[in-house]
């Protein structure tokens, strides 16, 4: 350690380097001693350097004259090889936050949902059952987005905010096809989630799930990444296009929020893949889909513009069932045709088998629904049907799909 020069430096705590004293000014007793042999050796080396320098200068003039007076390149000292560049840590995306920062920013937007459902027990008695799930606040005046299966058939729905306040909720609208529902509580000044964009997601992006697992652990946070995009998953005979994440999802998380590292809502948690040895497979409805559905449910009570045939169908999956219904092969068959429907106007009949939609083969009710869902009301599709042992092609102009509850209310 260097000594301090004066009292001020000591007080300031700033070390200084003592001034060096030239060797020739040092007292003789402290000067390093050199032997006569060392002095002679040094003199000899200096002489050799002077001779070699003169020779090099002469060689330079000789080269200049041999090249006809061409300008000689300036001599440069060879620079040492540059050290390999060390990559700096990758900068996080603009606005990215830590998990704890995201949770602090968005947790007030996620709620716990509890429902009462009337069921029939073994003795054919009506009993009240309890169920629970999660939801996300999407407006300051009390609109919440959740899953349809969370509130389906509920006789009472209650919402508990993060601060512990509870409210009874009213049903605004449901959409079983996307498993989404909107409910509303009589409250204001709520913290609504910031809606993000699921179309901008990439596999590997961070995800943060917040919900009410097991119906009693409200505000639980798990995190992971986007494991896959546009994953086709069949849930309850419905084909859905979902986000896949490895964030831990459990019963009760349904309807909760899936957020990115900027605190934006990118999905509504819908399900986890279960089974022996299955872990890290959770799914969410992309927010682009959920927002469009929510806007329609709030404005109209149902998702507008969807096309439908106006029929009920049945799946025939084995020869015994085929024999019972007296159909020649397995597949999807019309079990009912609504009066005045698009199907009736096109001439479809009970017992017709649906083989293909616009050339795409279908073999189940789920596949038929998936193909119809690609079209809007007013569009015309070509159905390949099986009737009287032969194939026929029928053109059908789809009607708008309006839920029965909305029809009755109108």
UniProtKB/TrEMBL annotation:
SMART domains: PDZ
Residue span(s) of domain PDZ: 306-389
InterPro entries cross-referenced by the UniProt entry: Chloro_Bact_Ser_Proteases, PDZ, PDZ_sf, Peptidase_S1_PA, Peptidase_S1C
Keywords: Hydrolase, Membrane, Protease, Transmembrane, Transmembrane helix
A Pfam entry, by short name: PDZ_2
Transmembrane segments annotated in the record for this chain: 41-67
Protein name, UniProt field: Trypsin-like peptidase domain-containing protein
């Amino acid at each position: 350690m260097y000594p301090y020069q004066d009292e001020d430096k000591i007080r300031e705590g700033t070390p200084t380097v003592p001034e060096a004293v030239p060797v020739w000014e040092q007292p003789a007793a402290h000067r390093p001693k050199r032997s006569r042999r060392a002095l002679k050796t040094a003199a000899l080396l200096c002489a050799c350097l002077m001779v070699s320098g003169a020779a090099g200068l002469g060689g330079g003039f000789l080269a200049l004259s041999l090249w006809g007076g061409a300008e000689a390149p300036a001599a440069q000292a060879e620079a040492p090889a540059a050290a390999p560049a060390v990559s700096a840590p990758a900068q996080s995306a603009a606005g990215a936050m830590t998990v704890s920062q995201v949770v602090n920013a968005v947790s007030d937007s996620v709620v716990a949902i509890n429902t009462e459902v009337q069921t029939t027990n073994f003795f054919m008695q009506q009993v009240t059952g309890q169920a629970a799930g999660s939801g996300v606040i999407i407006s300051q005046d009390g609109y919440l987005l959740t899953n349809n299966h969370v509130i389906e058939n509920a006789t009472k729905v209650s919402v508990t905010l993060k601060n512990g306040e509870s409210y009874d909720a009213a049903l605004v609208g449901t959409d079983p096809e996307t498993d989404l529902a909107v409910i509303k509580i009589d409250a204001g000044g709520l913290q609504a989630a910031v809606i993000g964009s699921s179309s901008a997601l990439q596999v590997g992006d961070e995800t943060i799930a917040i919900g009410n697992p097991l119906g009693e652990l409200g505000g639980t946070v798990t995190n992971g990444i986007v494991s896959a995009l546009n994953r086709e998953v069949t849930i309850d005979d419905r084909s859905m296009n979902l986000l896949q994440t490895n964030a831990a999802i459990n019963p009760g998380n349904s309807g909760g929020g899936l957020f990115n590292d900027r605190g934006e809502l990118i999905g509504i948690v819908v399900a986890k893949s279960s089974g022996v040895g299955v872990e890290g497979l959770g799914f969410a409805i992309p927010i682009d889909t959920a927002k469009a559905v929510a806007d329609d449910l709030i404005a109209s009570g149902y998702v507008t513009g969807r096309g439908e045939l106006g029929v009920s169908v049945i799946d025939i999956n084995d020869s015994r069932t085929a024999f019972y219904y007296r159909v020649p092969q397995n597949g999807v068959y019309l079990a009912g045709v609504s009066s005045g429907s698009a199907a009736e106007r096109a001439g479809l009949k009970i017992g017709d088998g649906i083989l293909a939609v616009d050339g795409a083969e279908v073999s189940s009710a789920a596949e038929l629904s998936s193909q119809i869902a690609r079209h809007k009301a007013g569009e015309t599709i070509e159905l390949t049907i099986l009737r009287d042992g032969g194939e026929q092609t029928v053109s059908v102009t789809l009607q708008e799909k309006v839920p029965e509850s909305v029809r009755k209310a109108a």
